[in-house]
Amino acid sequence: MVSRRLAEAGVPLWQQGWLRAARHCPSPNYGPRPRGVAVDLVVVHSISLPPGVFAGPQIEDFFLNRLDFDAHPYFDTLRGMQVSAHFLVRRDGELLQFVSVADRAWHAGRSVFDGRENCNDYSVGIELEGLEGGAFEPAQYRCLVGLLRALRQAMPLRAVVGHEHVAPGRKADPGPGFDWQGLRRMLRWSAQRFPCAG
């Protein structure tokens, strides 16, 4: 993975909250984190625009506020929304970053984890290109493993959860097609870091 090669070469993985191994696509949809809040949570999402369609520019366009809402009937449901995530992992494992991890991306909405509301304040949002409830590609898991390891080096990462876990009843992604146990085995992290994995 690119992050590993950078580390082995002595190159810092991060620069002002931007991962060097990612393709940078700065989104205008972000804000400051509350002062003194530790970023210790990762929220995993899934997204495809329109649903079930992969590899197009629509997700990137959506996070950059340049989506043509008239291009597909589904897009009309998104009209006026301004959202973002810190990262997007494409089906082929390509990694894009939209917001510095030092900043607050707009990904979780109304949410709560372990009694703490407003997960956007203290989390990193990672979107996986995929259909809610569907399966994800091996390349995506490999990229996600490298990204989570890099995040753990940069912050006191306490837990990795799905959007469905912090907004139950409102969101259901990434859904049953996501292999939480396989991810944990690949990372070799304790089950405590995956409190909602089942």
Automatic annotation (TrEMBL):
Q: Which cofactor is essential here?
A: Zn(2+)
Enzyme Commission (EC) number: 3.5.1.28
- Its predominant location is cytoplasm
- Keywords, comma-separated and alphabetical: Cell wall biogenesis/degradation, Cytoplasm, Hydrolase, Metal-binding, Zinc
Main enzyme class: hydrolase
List residues of the N-acetylmuramoyl-L-alanine amidase domain: 27-175
Q: CDD domains under this entry?
A: PGRP
Q: Which SUPFAM superfamilies match?
A: N-acetylmuramoyl-L-alanine amidase-like
A GO molecular function term, named singly, is: N-acetylmuramoyl-L-alanine amidase activity
Compartments (UniProt record): Cytoplasm
Kindly state one GO CC term assigned in the UniProt record: cytoplasm
- GO BP of this protein: cell wall organization; peptidoglycan catabolic process; peptidoglycan turnover
Q: What is the reaction catalyzed?
A: Hydrolyzes the link between N-acetylmuramoyl residues and L-amino acid residues in certain cell-wall glycopeptides
Protein family per UniProt:
Belongs to the N-acetylmuramoyl-L-alanine amidase 2 family.
Q: Under which name does UniProt file this protein?
A: 1,6-anhydro-N-acetylmuramyl-L-alanine amidase AmpD
Q: What is the lineage of its organism?
A: Bacteria, Pseudomonadati, Pseudomonadota, Betaproteobacteria, Burkholderiales
